[in-house]
Amino acid sequence: MTSIGFDKSLYILPFDHPGWSYERIFGWKGELTEEHAAQITDSKRMIYDSFQSAITLGVPKNKAGILVDEQFGGAILQHAAELGVSTCCPVEKTGQDEFDFEFGEDFSKHIEAVHPTFCKVGVKYNAEGDQALNARQEERLRRLSDYVHKASRSFFMLELMVPPLKEQLDRFHGAETGYESQLRPQLTIQAIEQLQDAGVEPDVWNVEGFDRREDYERIAGAARRKGRDKVSCLVVCRGEDDLKGRIWLRTAASVLGFVGFVAGRTSLWSAMMAWQYANLTREETVALIARRYREFVDSFEERRCAAA
Hints:
single chain; TIM Barrel; globular; 8-stranded parallel β-barrel; about 50% helix; 11 helices; alpha/beta; 8 strands
């Protein structure tokens, strides 16, 4: 396991949103047109401008990273790589409950064409769920893991989501808060261990946040079990509550094995909505996103220094 892992600080600004997710920002209906695609590409360029502005304002370049898709952000990925910035590019089909490759059997060609620092995949995996589904996902993820480690120049990043089953929610009378605090942490550990045992070996695990510090410690321990000493975790600050995401971030920052975060997409969406509907100028939007990203970075680093 000595060749697996990435244990440096990594602070990711994500703007890998698929085309269909922009409908609520731009108010589109129907098929995605060339004009729509141009708007999406331009909006992602604006977020990338924010990222570069944040670096100018003090975010450490050697710790900063972007997560953007090849379809609308290919030029951005290339430019960022030329600047020496860490890049993450997703390879999964979006909007699906079962993981599959965006480009089918040609996935390796696209990885090599983009050559991201991190080949990223998002997976929904519940260890108590459909075992045939889990087995299919394990097989595809193992193929990707083997390819990345043996034939590519990228690291492998796996973003793990553990959606609740109905019967799991029933244990808490339908309350997601009970599932989130009492069951999801253990299911996340089980998912990590099952995937590892199936031959899936991420260098970095992206996991959704938890309320208790001990849950982060257990997750980091699972990621690094059996000699995987350099494998690390990032906390994903997802959800509608941006404040809660920041609390998750600060808690994770105090735990060995958590080296950074994926900033909250909620912050990006609210800034983009303000740009479209609240007469925020492009320059103001760039400044707003840059400030919010830098706040995530400052918060993580302050807590990390305090813990040290």
